[in-house]
């Protein structure tokens, strides 16, 4: 693969221009902005790189761009998952350059979506191009799946898999992203938490009432506070009966976590904190971050919150809550447990709206897929990779691991300062270059197994 690696260096500027052209398209899934244009651009880049392309479509869903290359003789197939949709760029005033006008400063490329997830889209396509242009063929078959709804829950991907299952079959999967730690060691993530997103409503009087009547008229905000307090304790433990029954986290996961650098004071300083949730310290704090489910309040809406005063008892209140769940748990079972909790503790005046959710999944550390990617990553970066049993965030990786049975891990072109989902999102050019080379090395390692 030496010629392919040299091709990467020789053509890096061209690859960056392709990345900039993709990042200039505001493919925001929530308002369905720029989706068609982004699909067209990805198709064009795939075809120019020597891959066969299909645009898969389902009614009411954003398209999936599917690309593949099958050599005449091969034993293994690798599939790459990415998403082309991005988060909205707000607040715009905090960007140092326009979010959809990619700019290079200080060795970094700034744009909305460059880290999450378009830098990895281009890195993976260009790795395959580099091998094809220098060798004329691949030693393994490759597949690409680029979806357009990850940022709104990946709700259509399971439907695409059900309809086009044969297109998704593979021996090993590479998921969307991964970063480099502050010590420059690359991360290899074996799984993601699942998620379940809810909104809870309480309604009392049929209109807002003068607060002089607060001794008579029930306040829905106080009722909502009582309900929220019943869901978890001050240490973050979730109090819903049966919540922890099915969780599959074992000693192997804890052992992996012991190899992850963690500086309590540095993280507290980064976020301006005096203490963590539950007052956890050291390894217990690290476990709380990676190996414990969470119940989080995203926002509360009620009453008068503008400038000045207005003395009322609000008529209604609502709160949005997300749960991060682990292997063995499902959003459906959580919803069932929530309804039982509401009945058992007398919160029948609380209405529940379930928005979306999906299960968690992770690949075993002993999988051949982990060994291949670990070895390739070590070779690319000349550093020992950090192996995470689980990411702190959620992504629908269960579609590959649980639904299709493909051992899948996550790597990528980001670094600790990529500011994913934030203003001034960026990747370092050097990390982009190495991410391309890492895919070349993964193909090489897979061909040896």
Explain briefly what this protein structure is.
With 449 residues, this protein is an alpha+beta fold. The protein has 14 helices and 19 strands.
List the helices and strands and how they pair.
Blueprint lengths: L1 H9 L1 H12 L11 H14 L3 E5 L7 E6 L7 E7 L19 E3 L2 E3 L3 H22 L5 E7 L9 H7 L1 H4 L3 E4 L11 E3 L1 E2 L1 E10 L5 E2 L9 H12 L19 H7 L6 H8 L10 H9 L3 E9 L9 E2 L2 E10 L5 H14 L5 E9 L2 E2 L5 H14 L4 E3 L9 H6 L4 E3 L15 E3 H20 L1
What does this 3D model show about the protein?
Helix 1 crosses helix 4 (about 115-135), helix 1 runs antiparallel to helix 14 and helix 2 (about 10-25) packs antiparallel against helix 4 (about 115-135). The radius of gyration is 24 Å and the shape is globular. The protein contains 14 helices and 19 strands. The longest helix is centred in the first third of the chain and has 22 residues, at about 115-135. The model has no long low-confidence stretch (mean pLDDT about 95). The chain folds into two domains: about 1-190 and about 360-449, Zn peptidases (Aminopeptidase); about 195-245 and about 295-360, Alpha-Beta Plaits. It is α+β, with helices and mostly antiparallel strands and about 450 residues long. The strands form six sheets. It has a six-stranded mixed β-sheet with strand order 1-2-6-3-7-18, covered by helices on one side. A four-stranded antiparallel β-sheet has the order 12-14-10-15.
């Amino acid at each position: 693969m030496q010629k392919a690696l040299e091709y990467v260096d020789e053509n890096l500027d061209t690859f960056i221009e392709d990345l900039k052209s993709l990042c200039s398209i505001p493919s925001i899934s929530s308002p369905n902005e720029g989706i068609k244009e982004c699909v067209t651009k990805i198709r064009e880049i795939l075809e120019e790189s020597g891959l066969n392309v299909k645009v898969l479509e389902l009614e009411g869903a954003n398209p999936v761009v599917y690309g593949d290359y099958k050599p005449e003789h091969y034993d293994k197939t690798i599939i790459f998952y990415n998403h082309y949709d991005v988060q909205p760029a707000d607040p715009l005033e905090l960007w140092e350059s326009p979010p959809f006008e990619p700019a290079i400063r200080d060795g970094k490329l700034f744009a909305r979506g460059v880290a999450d997830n378009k830098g990895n889209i281009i890195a993976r396509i260009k790795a395959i191009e580099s091998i094809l242009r220098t060798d004329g063929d691949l030693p393994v078959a490759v597949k690409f799946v680029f979806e357009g709804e990850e940022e709104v829950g990946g709700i259509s991907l399971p439907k695409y898999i059900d309809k086009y299952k044969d297109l998704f079959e593979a021996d090993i999967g590479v998921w969307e992203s991964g970063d480099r730690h502050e010590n420059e060691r690359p991360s290899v993530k074996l799984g993601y938490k699942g998620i379940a997103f809810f909104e809870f409503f309480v309604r009392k009087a049929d209109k807002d009432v003068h607060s002089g009547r607060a001794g008579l008229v029930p306040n829905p905000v106080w009722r909502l506070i009582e309900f929220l307090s019943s869901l978890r304790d001050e240490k973050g433990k979730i109090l819903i009966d049966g919540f922890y029954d099915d969780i599959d986290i074992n000693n192997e996961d804890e052992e992996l976590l012991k190899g992850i650098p963690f500086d309590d004071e540095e993280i507290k300083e980064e976020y301006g904190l005096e203490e963590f949730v539950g007052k956890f310290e050291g390894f217990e704090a690290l476990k709380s971050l990676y190996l414990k489910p969470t119940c989080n309040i995203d926002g509360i809406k009620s009453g008068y919150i503008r400038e000045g005063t207005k003395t009322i008892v609000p008529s209604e209140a609502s709160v949005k809550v997300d749960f991060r769940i682990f292997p063995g748990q499902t959003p459906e079972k959580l919803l069932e447990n929530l309804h039982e909790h509401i009945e058992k503790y007398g919160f029948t005046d609380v209405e529940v709206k379930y928005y979306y959710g999906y299960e968690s999944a992770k690949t075993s550390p002993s999988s051949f897929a982990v060994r291949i990617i670990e070895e390739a990553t070590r070779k690319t970066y000349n550093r020992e990779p950090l192996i995470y049993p689980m990411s702190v965030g959620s992504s629908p990786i269960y579609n590959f691991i649980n639904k299709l049975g493909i051992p899948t891990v996550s790597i990528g072109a980001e670094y600790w300062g990529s500011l994913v989902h934030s203003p001034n999102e960026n990747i370092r050019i050097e990390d982009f270059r190495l991410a391309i080379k890492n895919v070349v090395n993964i193909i090489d390692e897979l061909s040896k197994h």
